[in-house]
Every structure is written in C-alpha cells, then in structure tokens.
Write a structure and sequence with these properties.
Number of strands: 10
Shape: globular
Number of domains: 2
CATH architecture of the largest domain: 2-Layer Sandwich
Largest sheet: 5 strands, mixed
Helix content: 40-55%
Radius of gyration: 20 Å
Oligomer: single chain
Number of helices: 9
C-alpha cells in the first residue's frame, strides 16, 4: 500500500503567520494569524513582525495539525517559505521548520513565495492547464510569468520600481486612509466613478512602473487642494475609483500584451491584489472578449497563506526536490 504524502507547510514571509497541512495533494487545513500592530505605523515594521511570528507560530501550527486531524509523527515532510520576504520574518519560519524536520528525521522542502502564489491555482478546481500566463500582483511584487509546468516558470516582466499593491498603499497614505489601503480604495471605488485621468507610464516590454503614478496623483491633489482645501474629502470616492481604474488598466494592458504575443489563452492572476474587485472584473471581461480561460484564486488563497506553500511543496516532494539543514532564508529569491 502506498504511503500517504503528508506535508506541514509554514508561511512567514511578511506579517501573516500561517500553517497548512496537505495530504496527497489535498489541502486539509489553512490557518492564519495576522498582525494588527502595523496599522498604527502605516506599514509593516520588520522588527515587530518577526517578534509576532515568534509568538504566533506554535499555536498556528498546532491549530493547523488539529484541523487536519494529523499528528507530528504522521508527517512525511515539512515545508517553509525561504523567500522572498522580510529576513527577520522568514528566519522564524525557516528555523521552526528545520527544527521539526531534524527532530522527526523527515524531509525538508524550501519554497519560493512567488512560485507558490502561482501554484495556489492548483489547490481547488478549476485548474489551469500548461502552458499558461500568470500575473502575480501583491504589495511587494508585480510580475508576469509564463508557466510551462508546475515547477518551470519564466519571468516575462516585473516592476522596475513600486509594486501595484505598494502603489495602492502609498496613494492611500496620501489620501489619509488606513493601512492596508488597497481594500479601502477598492471599497470606496464602488461608491465613485473614474472621472479623474492619471498617467500611464511608458515602459517597454512586459515590465511595470508605478512610482510615476504615485507622483502624478500627489501633484494632482496638491494642485486641487490649493483652490479647494476640502477637495479630497469631497471627492474621495471618485479619486479612489480613478486611481484603481488606472492601476488596473496598467496591469491589464501589460497582461494582454504578454498573452497576445505568446498566443496563450489560459490566463491567471495571483497574489494579494488579485483580491481586488476591479482587477477581477477586468480580467473576467477581457477573458470573455478575447476568448481566454481565466483563473482567479479563492480570496483565502490570494493573500499570503501556507496552503499555497503546501501545494508547491507537494509538487516538489513528488520530484524529490528537498533541501538540507544548511538552507538559509533569502530576502530576495529568484526561482
């Protein structure tokens, strides 16, 4: 009888501590502990994040095992996010995983966070078929990838400065919104219309740039406030709708170029910003117009989560792709 492949996965790349158990490629649990402390600072504070991971990791792992009905002795392997991410946060997850693997004498699997966002599409149906184009969009990353197989991906384009999620948060800060600002802008966009025109940066190929948009919005607001100090307050919903409309159009224009150039009709998005309603609707509309098959993860698999780490680890386990105790976290990590 074939032995079950049971993997415990840990995700700690930023400010969410997450653990997941996957059994024979089926996710049994996915537990996440967030960190509210960063809201007061308008962004993630690395030292606070790493300390919170130390407090959260044991109860989160314990809950993931209990939810899955699995004990530590049942595990075939343990997986962890090696990078990219905040070094202090990654170190907590890496050290914890290595300690468990060593104590149980089981396999250790390191996972690239971006690769895992892409493979989140294989947690539940419908699942894309290879090859497909995937755009990963989050607070720290914006990339277009050509996915040839589960562990074979080619980067076609990336951001040359700010990521899309970072642009949402920085513009949100200018508008006086809370952190993270992306979901707030998304909600307010539903109450307004994209009546203000912001610039789209001219960047060659499939690369992105969002720093210019942030500057464009800032200068526009500064000009309007000179004549009307209450401009932001009176037009907040329309400003948010206009910002979101431009960010989404920048993303979709590059995605369309990649899809058309490579003549691939299987198209996916992943990452935290893929939870944005404007982006989801725009992708679905483009799919209907151009005859694409489009794929968007469930909301719980868009933001940072260990289920996507577990899914990637399952594929790596099948290929015998393991790592040793000498493995260290990497804040920048190309797959």
């Amino acid at each position: 009888m074939t032995k079950d492949i049971i993997i415990l996965a840990i995700e700690s790349s930023c400010d969410d501590t997450s653990a997941s158990v996957i059994v024979n490629g089926v996710v049994r649990s996915n537990c996440i502990a967030g960190q509210k402390a960063h809201e007061a600072y308008g962004g993630v504070v690395p030292e606070i994040a790493s300390r919170a991971h130390q407090l959260n990791i044991v109860p989160v792992v314990d809950l993931a095992l209990k939810d899955a009905g699995i004990e530590l002795k049942d595990l075939s392997a343990i997986a962890f996010t090696r990078g990219p991410g905040l070094l202090g946060s990654l170190l907590v997850g890496v050290s914890f995983a290595k300690a468990i693997a060593l104590s149980l004498n089981i396999a250790l699997i390191e996972v690239n966070h971006i690769q895992a966002h892409v493979l989140a599409h294989f947690i539940d149906a419908p699942k894309p078929t290879y090859p497909f184009i995937c755009m990963t969009v989050s607070g720290g990353h914006t990339q277009i990838l050509l996915v040839k197989d589960s562990l074979l991906m080619q980067e076609l384009g990336t951001t040359i400065d700010d990521a899309a999620g970072e642009a949402f948060d920085k513009i949100g800060k200018i508008l006086g919104l809370g952190y993270p600002a992306g979901p707030i802008i998304d909600r307010l966009s539903g109450e307004g219309k994209p009546v203000f025109q912001f610039s789209e940066p001219m960047v060659e190929g499939y690369n992105f740039s969002f720093s210019g948009l942030k500057t464009n919005v800032l200068r526009f607001l500064q000009k309007e406030i000179k004549t009307n100090p209450d401009f932001i307050k009176e037009n907040l919903a329309d400003i948010c709708a206009s910002v979101q409309d431009r960010i989404v159009s920048i993303l979709l224009n590059k995605l369309k170029k990649a899809v058309f150039d490579h003549k691939i009709s299987e198209v996916a998005i992943a990452g935290g910003v893929s939870a944005n309603s404007g982006l989801r609707m725009a992708l679905e509309a483009a799919g209907k117009k151009h005859g694409w098959k489009t794929y968007i993860p469930q909301f719980q698999y868009c933001t940072d989560n260990a289920a996507m780490i577990a899914m990637t680890a399952h594929f790596k386990y099948l290929e015998g792709s393991f790592c040793g105790q000498e493995t260290v976290p990497l804040s920048r990590y190309k797959f």
